[in-house]
Amino acid sequence: MIHMTETLAVHTIEGFLTPDETAELTKVLDEHLALTGWVPERPSDGLVPPGAAQEILAAGIERALPAIRRVFPSAAAATPWDYHDLGPGDRIDAHLHGVGAPDARPQRVARVAFHLQEAERGGQFYVDTCSAEDLWTGRTAGPGSAFLPGTRFAREISHEGRPEDLAALDGVPRTRWTSAPPARTAVVYGAQLVHGVETVVEGRLRKLITNLMDG
Fold first, then answer.
1. Is the full-model pTM beyond 0.85?
2. In terms of DSSP H, where are the helices of 94-205?
3. Which entry of 34, 122, 128, 191 is 20 to 30 Å from 103 by CA?
4. pLDDT at position 102
5. Which residues pair with 140 in a beta bridge?
6. Is the predicted pLDDT of residue 165 greater than 90, yes or no?
7. Is the pLDDT of residue 81 over 90?
8. What's the rounded Cα separation, in Å, for the pair 6 and 47?
9. How many angstroms separate the CA atoms of 30 and 25, rounded?
10. Band of the pLDDT at 69, cuts 50, 70, 90?
11. Residues pairing with 194 in the sheet
């Protein structure tokens, strides 16, 4: 059963991939990009990497699960990864995924972000925290839910959502926590956290993201 605190937690897995795995993942992705010619139309666009890349990342998740479960005990498996590629001027505005269907199974507990390449300046991942009631719906988990009964559910505010929702989020006072993890670190963040990526000023940010699901 998923506890509310899991959906609001942050954790890091240092050494998520080995240097050799990171080099091989970079090679596989570079070859795939050269073959497909994929270029994102907007910063939030993602590409599903090929099987060889997924296998490397899956091995990282399998090794990391015991450490992940110290903070996210409900985490049981990961979905296929998405690849994101951001250049100068690109950013991902603050947004909130929330829990769209609390009674569905399985449920997303958290997400994992792995930065394959950091931008030279800018491009930091962040989460925002706040005490405002504005971010929460009136829904609570009931009997039979994957969530502990009484769990509150946050609003869904997509970075490509309705202007009024984004404006409402912008109007909520928040405290920003910006990450600067060591190389080859994965950042794990709860499904009900406001998060985003600051503007890339110089260089290229290459990152991969997956969802952690309950059992």
1. yes
2. 163-170
3. 128
4. 85
5. 152
6. no
7. yes
8. 27
9. 8
10. very high
11. 128
Could you give the CA distance from residue 161 to residue 163 in angstroms, rounded to a whole number? 6
> Could you tell me how many residues make up the chain?
215
Is 17 in contact with 114 (CB distance < 8 Å)?
A: yes
Whole-Å CA distances, 15 to 93, 114, 118, 183: 28, 10, 15, 8
> Which has more pLDDT, 11 or 102?
11
Cβ 15 vs Cβ 184: under 8 Å: yes
Q: Domains in the chain, ordered, with CATH?
A: 4-214 (2.60.120.620)
* Three-class SS state of 169: helix
HSE-CB at 73 with a 13 A cutoff on CA atoms is 8
Q: What percent of the chain has pLDDT over 70?
A: 99
DSSP of 10-54: EEEETTSS-HHHHHHHHHHHHHHHHHH----SSTT--B---HHHH
- The pLDDT of residue 211: 98
Q: Shortest CA distance to 98 belongs to which of 159, 175, 143, 174?
A: 159
Q: What is the DSSP letter of 104?
A: S
Report which residue type is found at 52: A
Cα→Cα distances 155→7, 40, 94, 165, Å: 13, 27, 13, 9
Residue 188 burial by Cβ neighbours in a 10 Å radius (0-12, 13-18, 19+): buried
Q: Is residue 149 a contact partner of residue 155, using CB atoms and an 8 Å limit?
A: no
| pLDDT at residue 161 is higher than 70 | no
Cis amide leading into 66 (omega within 30): no
> How does the average pLDDT of the chain come out, rounded?
95
